[in-house]
Automatic annotation (TrEMBL), chain A:
It comes from the Bacteria. GO terms for molecular function: electron transfer activity. Residues 22-219 form the Electron transfer flavoprotein alpha/beta-subunit N-terminal domain. InterPro entries: ETF_a/b_N (IPR014730), ETF_b (IPR012255), ETF_beta_N (IPR033948), Rossmann-like_a/b/a_fold (IPR014729). This is Electron transfer flavoprotein small subunit. Gene3D superfamilies: HUPs.
UniProtKB/TrEMBL annotation, chain B:
Belongs to the ETF alpha-subunit/FixB family. This is Electron transfer flavoprotein alpha subunit. FAD binds at residues 224, 249-250, 263-267, 280-287, 301. Residues 11-201 form the Electron transfer flavoprotein alpha/beta-subunit N-terminal domain. Pfam families: ETF, ETF_alpha.
Length: 278, 342
């Protein structure tokens, strides 16, 4: 069994702050983490390997040299091989360019050792588009299952799997041919603590480095800014909605405050109260 | 990319239907498309409807503003699956080359849009909250929140067509239907066979009750300040009295006090009710992005510095377990005898 997992290093957006003077994002000092959903994708791949009694888990990322840290964390979680695809020429990539690079890389990995399943997080918490997984599946021309929550069956011999995915009406149970690409929710597999032997393995591990030209000559027209149809025109902090009165029960008493609240509720013209206020 | 320019700029909206029900976001998008059309000289608004035996849904699309609807009918489109939908719609896009193509940022729409954009080789802006046409160059300016709602970014797709965007349900207003509007139905041939589809649905386990908080007119939401699951019965009582639904912040869902389908915010749902009552919710930015479009916000919090007060129409500093029961009494009193007591 060979699983490829695409992971992204992201700023921990729960710690992102806005500079009140300039209105811009303060990135300094914000810890970089493995995109949370991607850790679950790695875990799902490792569990699949355990379930099937062996195999290989390859993790890949396109990002700056610092993203090595993220790959090593995945090696601690049980990945066997890690590849960093890093080059200034990849800078400014939107989802179309990102999906090109990842799809092309997976093709090359597949030629060395055939890939049975590809796992992505359901979305990255910074860019937040959820578009890269569908883009890669489309480029590789393999089945796509987004929002996967469980892999019920995985039959390598028959080249088929049964996957559960979350949809608006409930849980959809799908049968797919293999290889397939899944984007995963956190439920797919709980992240375990890395055991000591894995920590030691990761400490010695050196991820492979791929550039824009070697070992894979990526098409220069399809990478980075050049390969990206979208550009960020402008970025700004959202204008705040301004608040109204703040009344204290302790100061004004419950009756007064509730009476004022009722007046506000009536202003909304809702349900049963509509007839009363008209 | 495109050598010859299409003569008429077409603004397309994907009409999402499942089990013969159109997702309301499709109509919201038709409303947006009509507004964009006013700023894009000579443009027309058109709808794309894939499915099986769904022709009877076309009149609704006309009422909400489409001048023409492309109907793609094939049994393989009966249940949504990525491949047949992506192939069918991409073929149509390549043939007619619309200027703009809008898709709802639903589970289905997010699955589909990225595949279409990749097949067509164009740009796709995700989860937009605002759309406009730049008057200078007639390009779509699609604005979206990123970094957990901390930053708004306006995305442009200058040279590739169509300019694609997904838009979350409920961030744009629902247009009023024009009952007499009609339009042209174009039947699009599509000949994929079931054997060509690699994914089969074995079954669907329906969620017991799917509260659709996105379309509630009144929402009574509880946060971590509820202190536990028990208090939500109180919120339900107030919601029932106001004809609304109960929702929650993320910690409430994480703690298992409420189902995930009721979560409001960045990783939950966007709501746009007439009235949003926030009880024991601090008002973190990730929560606010999901509810700041409410007409009226009433917040109850013991902490006078809670950020929710910065956006509330009215804030009450007090214990929700004191304030909510008093509100229930007032609301019930009014709706029973039809008289205001104030
Ligand atoms: C403010 C801002 C707004 C943006 N808006 C858009 C937009 O509307 N449209 C657009 O096309 N691009 C947009 N981008 C660019 C986009 O963020 C990048 O293309 C990014 O590389 C991938 O998109 P994402 O973070 O949304 O990933 P998602 O598609 O949300 O990520 C899903 C999964 O894909 C995998 N993945 C994603 N990136 C990588 C990677 N580099 N290496 C390995 N695996 C990866 C991970 O498994 C991840 O969980 C925007 C960027 C910024 C800064
Ligand atoms: C990537 C990311 C995505 C997120 N997505 C979401 C999302 O979709 N939705 C969401 O809600 N959050 C989301 N969050 C979490 C968000 O940052 C906040 O942590 C969360 O909204 C806080 O929930 P809360 O207001 O219920 O709890 P708290 O912040 O703990 O606030 C509880 C409030 O209750 C008040 N209180 C306590 N007792 C009482 C009482 N008896 N009466 C009245 N008031 C009382 C307190 O003063 C306090 O203000 C996300 C975070 C991240 C990092």
């Amino acid at each position: 069994m060979h699983a490829v997992v695409a992971i992204k290093q992201v700023p921990d957006t729960s710690n992102v702050r806005i500079d009140p003077e300039t209105g811009t994002l303060i990135r300094e000092g914000v810890p970089a983490i493995v995109n949370p959903y991607d850790l679950h994708a790695v875990e799902a791949a490792v569990q699949l390997k355990e379930r099937l009694g062996g195999g290989q888990v390859t993790v890949i990322t396109m990002g700056p040299p610092k993203a090595t840290e993220a790959l090593l964390e995945c090696v601690e979680q049980g990945a066997d091989r890690a590849i960093l695809i890093s080059d200034r020429k990849f800078g400014g990539a939107d989802t179309l360019a990102t999906s090109y690079v990842l799809a092309r890389a997976i093709e090359v990995i597949n030629a060395e050792l055939p890939v049975d399943i590809i796992l992505f997080g359901k979305q990255a918490i910074d860019g937040d588009t959820a578009q890269v997984g569908p883009g890669v599946a489309t480029r590789l021309n393999i089945p796509l299952i987004t929002y996967a929550v469980a892999i019920e069956e995985f039959d390598l011999a028959a080249r088929r799997a049964v996957v559960h995915r979350r949809v608006e009406q409930g849980i959809e149970i799908l049968e797919t041919t293999l290889p397939a690409l899944l984007t995963v929710e956190k439920e797919i597999a709980p992240v375990r603590h890395a055991p000591l032997p894995r920590l030691i393995a990761a400490a010695r591990y050196q991820p492979e480095m791929w550039t824009a030209t070697s070992p894979v000559p990526f098409d220069p027209q399809q990478i980075g800014l050049k390969g990206s149809p979208t550009v960020v025109g402008k970025a700004y902090t959202p204008p705040p909605r301004s608040g109204g009165d703040v009344l204290s029960v302790a100061d004004l008493g419950l009756d007064t405050v509730v009476a004022r609240a009722m007046a506000v509720i009536e202003r909304a013209h809702v349900g049963n109260l509509q007839s009363v206020t008209e | 990319m495109n050598a010859e320019q299409p003569t008429i700029p077409r603004i397309w909206v994907f009409v999402e239907q499942q089990e013969h029900q159109v997702h309301p976001v499709s109509w919201e998008l038709l409303g947006a498309a009509k507004r964009l059309s006013a700023d894009l000289p000579g443009s027309v608004v058109e709808a794309v409807l894939p499915g099986h035996q769904v022709a009877d849904l076309a009149p609704q699309a006309f009422q909400y503003g489409a001048a023409r609807i492309y109907l793609i009918d094939n049994p393989v489109l009966e249940i949504y699956r990525n491949l047949p939908y992506a192939v069918a719609v991409s073929q149509l896009v390549k043939e007619h080359r619309p200027e703009i193509f809008l898709i709802g940022a639903t589970t289905l729409g997010r699955d589909l849009a990225g595949s279409i954009a990749t097949r067509v080789g164009t740009g796709l802006t995700a989860d937009c909250t605002e759309l406009s046409i730049d008057p200078a160059n007639h390009i779509l300016a699609a604005t979206r929140p990123t970094f957990g709602g901390n930053l708004m970014a306006t995305i442009l797709c200058r040279r590739h067509r169509p300019q694609m965007a997904t838009v979350r349900p409920r961030v744009l207003p629902m247009p009023d239907p024009a009952p007499d509007a009609t339009g042209e139905v174009v039947t699009v041939p599509f000949d994929m066979r079931e054997e060509d589809v690699p994914v089969k649905r074995l079954r669907l386990i329906r969620a017991e009750e799917q509260p659709n908080i996105e379309y509630a007119e009144v929402i009574v939401a509880g946060g971590r300040g509820m202190g536990g699951p028990e208090g939500f019965a109180l919120l339900q009582e107030l919601a029932d009295a106001l004809g609304g639904m109960v929702a929650a912040s993320r910690p409430v869902v994480d703690a298992g006090w409420m189902d995930a389908s009721r979560q409001v915010g960045q990783t939950g749902k966007t709501v746009r009710p007439k009235l949003y009552i926030a009880a024991g919710i601090s008002g973190a930015v990730q929560h606010r992005v999901g509810m700041s479009g409410a007409d009226v916000i009433l917040a109850i919090n013991t902490d006078p510095n809670a950020p929710i007060f910065q956006i509330a129409t009215m804030g009450i500093v007090g214990d929700l377990y004191e304030v909510i029961p008093a509100l229930i009494r007032q609301v019930k009193g009014q709706s029973y005898d039809g008289q205001a007591h104030l």
